[in-house]
Amino acid sequence: SAKQQAAASSLTAAEATVLRSNEEFPNDVGLLSVFLLNLMTLQPGEAMFLKPNLPHAYLRGDCMELMAESDNVVRAGFTGKFKDVPTLISMLEYTPAKPQLLTGTPEGANVWLYA
Q: Where would I find the H helices in 25-72?
C-alpha cells in the first residue's frame, strides 16, 4: 500500500537492514548489532580491512573473506551454528573506529591490487 511504502522510505539504512534480516533470521539477537556496527555497502572492486577481534558480518551479495590460518571463528548471531557468548565478550575489541575502504587498482582482467 502507499502507506507502507511511505513508512518504509522513512526508515534509516540500519532500520531497513534489521527488518530485512529479521525475515531471514527471525528474532535473532544479532539484529541489535546492526545499530552498533558500521553499516557499509561495498561496490564491485571495493574492499575493506578489519583487524582481528572486530565483529563483522556480510549480509547480502557475494563476498570473499580472507583471514589468517585459524579455526578460531566465534559467532555472535545471524547463524544457526553455535554462539560462544562468553568467549566472544572476552575477545572483542571495544574501540570504536570506522573501517578503511580500499578501492584497489586494476592490474588486468578480473585482477585488482590492494596495498
A: none
Residues tagged active-site: 75
Give the single-character DSSP code of 25: S
Instruction: Tell me the pLDDT tens digit for each residue of 43-60.
Output: 888 898 888 888 888 888
pTM: 0.71
Strand pairing partners for 100? 49
Sign of the alpha-carbon dihedral angle for 75, 72, 53, 61: negative
- Rounded CA gap, 23 and 107, in Å? 40
User: How distant, in Å, are the alpha carbons of 5, 26, 85, 111 from that of 31?
Assistant: 22, 9, 15, 35
